[in-house]
Specification:
The complex is a heterodimer of chains A (334) and B (315).
Chain A (H helix, E strand, L loop, with lengths): L1 H28 L4 H6 L5 H11 L5 H13 L13 H36 L4 H15 L2 H15 L22 H8 L2 H38 L2 H8 L4 H38 L5 H11 L2 H29 L1 H5 L1
Chain B lengths: L2 H4 L1 H8 L9 H16 L3 H18 L1 H4 L36 H37 L1 H16 L2 H12 L3 H27 L3 H8 L4 H37 L12 H8 L8 H28 L7
Helix pairs in contact in B: 3-11, 4-6, 4-13, 6-7, 6-9, 6-11, 6-13, 7-9, 8-9, 9-11, 10-11, 11-12, 11-13, 12-13
Classes of the chains: A mainly alpha (334), B mainly alpha (315).
Chain lengths: 334, 315
Amino acid sequence: MIRFATKRLLQAVPVLLGLVVLVFIWVRLLPGDPARALLGESATPAQVERLRAAYGFDRPILEQFWMYLQRLGRGDFGTSLTTGESVLDGFLRRFPATIELAVAAMIFAVVLGIPIGYFAARHRGSLLDGAAVGGSLFGFVVPVFFLAYILKFIFALKLGWFPTAGRQDPRINATHYSGFYIVDGILTGEWDAAWDAVRHLALPAVALGAIPLAMIVRITRASVLDVISEDYVRTAKAKGLTRRIISRRHVLRNALLPVATIIGLQTGALLAGAVLTETVFAINGVGSYMFNAIGSMDYPVLQACILFVALIYTVINLLTDMSYGLIDPRARLS
Amino acid sequence: MSAIAQAPGPAGQTGQPKQPAKATGAQRSAGTTVRVIRQLLRQPAAVFGLAIVLIVILVAIFAPLLTPYEPSSIEWGNQITPKSVPGPSAEHLLGLDSFGSDLMTQIVYGARQTIVVGVVSTGIGVSVGALLGLIAGGIGGWVDTAIMRLMDIMLSIPALLLAVSIVSLMGRSPMAVMVAIGVSQVPIFTRLLRGSLLGERRRDYVLAARSLGLRRPGIVTMEMMPNAAGPLIVQATLMLATAVNSVAALSFLGLSTSEPTAAEWGLMLVKAQSRLVSSPLLAFAPGCAIAITALGFTLLGEALREQLDPKSRPR
């Protein structure tokens, strides 16, 4: 297992390095002078000159790259063009909101998706199966932001069951330590604050979780269908094991392996999907940070967000692969 | 489906190929095309998907004949108040949008933008991706490693962000959106074709072609490509559905145009946001248009997969 993990870890190194190179090249390809692109239209010639010297835009390209790496190593990702704030600070401050949203969306998708997929496979051809397959198709084709609108329209604006925007009612004077509002509410014992945060999170999480839900339903269903016709399941039946033991020990355990991969891949993708969802529900997270950066072409923010999100994405994929090796001994050999 | 049924599959295929090994790739694929189309027309879901796709394409082509108005015309702007926009009427079947354009006209012309951008971007994705996959799988060695590493890096950036970074290089324009979506699709097609080429490499017909004295470029393009093309076609159809959504997402993010009255479904959804309560139709019309178009391509792609991709499982 350690060998497998080391090997997989080493494979990720060139990818991450290549990513840094790609982002470095990207900044240099931006329209106009890179120093001007990173400072924005309103910069004075003196500011441009200073940044050009600091970033070494007049030096050989390899030296520039080395300086770039050093800056990254120091945690200097530049400052936002619109707010003048350090991009790293801006990102970290908004990160908990997005993590909270992505985790909630994933929990929604997993908790609903696996049972639905399982029962659809077990009752293949039934009404439930048809609804599951049809419903997952719906999840794939409806754009995330349109689904967000529909949910907001029905459940927030018309029925009034949920709040329309934000993360918490500002009238609740909640204490915040970590930036994870639900966790904060529980830790401080401010139950009303935690509950309010949950209510704010519900609709965005459902909107963001729709695609992973559709995928999990489909993969679980296909995978269970595969497994229930395996020899070892027949053997288990012949041995006289109860249906419950067969489904838990023999079917689900094997069928969930591909599902684990999808969960990992989708968790990374949720970070990008948050751009659309957070915008609709006015959640001040990494997603809306990127959305605003796109609107104002705030290159330092975009550059750092691409790096961070891709880094997180790669790490999650790495962890998924490793967990796969942990669950399924066969994966370590290949 | 079952392990027992599947087991002889891969082994048996090499021993007794369904088509005669002597037939050239071109002959084989011509026969396959007719067979696939015939079988597709027997599946209700496929016919439904095909019908949707054809309708959207026809609407896109004949947009000027379907509506008497211009898409960006805001001549009814004086009927718009901050509180409400006129709803459906005999003159305006779906009513007006928040700028005073005819909503129906915007939807109809939006089909044009969606289909053009979707098809061109997927075209870029397939052709560049297939070319790279062909080079990687055909040449192998360090070229293969280099290409596949680059693809790994591209895949490590979520597709939407990759598209955003490309648009920021090229400036806001429909062209930039096409390139952006196309490039973000490239790794998927490269991986797919390379994978199927590697799988084909050990097949008997490749050995036969080699012993006939064909050279490697000829074998890869004339013999192996037609055999590896099935999954590529399937994926391209499914990617069209994704592209329809990506087009909408990028115009939702304001990346495809700086023209506020442009007929784009994603842009229409942005404009509808502030009037969600008073005029939900402004959001529902373009939203449904996107979903229905994506549904058409998805149904068609999934039906094609069952026909063309023997490895796919029955769903």
